[in-house]
Amino acid sequence: MDVVVVESAQEVAREAASRVTDFVRRHPTASIGLATGGTQLGLYRLLTDAYRRGQVSFADNRFFMLDEYAGILPTSTNSFQHVVRSEFLDHVDAAPHSLHVLDGTASDLHAEAQRFEQILRDSGGVDLQLLGIGTNGHVGFNEPGSFPNSRTRPVRLHDDTIASNAPYFSSPADVPRAAISQGLETIMEARSILLMATGTTKAKAIAEMIDGQITAECPASILQGHSGATAIVDSAAASLLASRV
Ligand code: PGA
After folding, report:
1. Residue of minimum CA distance from atom 2 in ligand 1
2. Which of 136, 143, 154, 162 is most deeply packed, by most CB within 10 A?
3. In this structure, what are the phi and psi dihedrals at residue 77, rounded to the nearest 5 degrees?
4. According to the model, what pLDDT value does residue 100 have?
C-alpha cells in the first residue's frame, strides 16, 4: 500500500481529487465505488468544481455504493445514496441510473446483497474504490472481526461506529444498528483503492492499518495486501505512524 502524508484535511481532499480526476480522464468508462462519511465531502466538492471548470466528465462512468444503513429511506438525508447524489452526482454529468445502490429498505437484505454482487460481477467489477476508515479500523461497514473472505452482506454496527455517526442524527438512539456493506473480499477485488483519513481520531486506526499485523481486529489492515491501494492522510492522522515519528 502506498502512503501519502500531507499537511491538512484540505490537502487530503485536493490530492485525492487530483488523482480521481486524472484516473477518470484516463479511464472515462471506469466503475467507481463511492464512499460516504465526512472525509469524502471535500473530495466530492472538488470533483464537482473540476466538472464545472470543464476539467473532467463523469458521463460514461458507473458508480457503486460501498455501504448503506438498513431501514433508512433513500429520500432521507441520512441515506448514503442520498448523500452521494446530493453531494456529488446531482452536480455533475453522471448519467441517470449510473449509480448502483444498496437498498437498505429491502425486505430481504441477504437477497439485496446477492443482487448487488451479481451486478458488480456482470459489470466487470470496480476500477477505483474510494474509502474512509472508522476509528475502529472499519472500511465500509466491515467492523472488527469481519472475515477477509466476506462479501456484500447485512451487518451489525459496533457501538463506536454508532457513536461516531450519532452527530448526523437527532439522537444516538436514532442511529441504525444494522447496515448492508460490501465485504472485505469485495473491496479487495477493486483494481485500485483510494483511502482518505484526517484528524487525530483516526491516528490509531491508521497506525494499525499500515504498521500493524494484518488482523480482523483492524479490518483496514487487509489493504496491506492490495498492490493498487493508496492511503492519503493528513499529518494528524499520520501522527502515530512508526515510520514517520
Ligand atoms: P468519516 O467516516 O469520514 O465520517 O470519518 C469514515 C468511516 O467511518 O468509514
Report:
1. 37
2. 143
3. -65, -15
4. 98
Examine residue 244 and state whether it is found in any structural domain, yes or no.
no
pTM: 0.97
| Ligand 1 proximity of 133 Cβ (cutoff 6 Å) | yes
pLDDT at 236 over 80: yes
- Is 108 domain-assigned? yes
Q: How many domains, the chain?
A: 1
Residues of the chain with pLDDT > 90, as a percent, come to 98
Strands (E) located in the chain: 2-6, 31-34, 62-65, 67-69, 99-100, 128-131, 153-156, 178-181, 192-197, 229-234
Rounded distance between C-alpha atoms, residue 238 and residue 234, angstroms: 6
pLDDT tens, position by position, 86-142: 999 999 999 999 999 999 999 999 999 999 999 999 999 999 999 999 999 999 999
The verdict on residue 127 lying in a domain is yes
Give the CATH number, domain containing residue 128.
3.40.50.1360
Classify 134 as helix, strand or coil: coil
In this prediction, residue 245 has a pLDDT band, given cuts at 50, 70 and 90, of: very low
Range of the domain at 135: 2-234
The atom number, within ligand 1, closest to the CA of 196 reads 3
Residue 242 lies in a domain: no
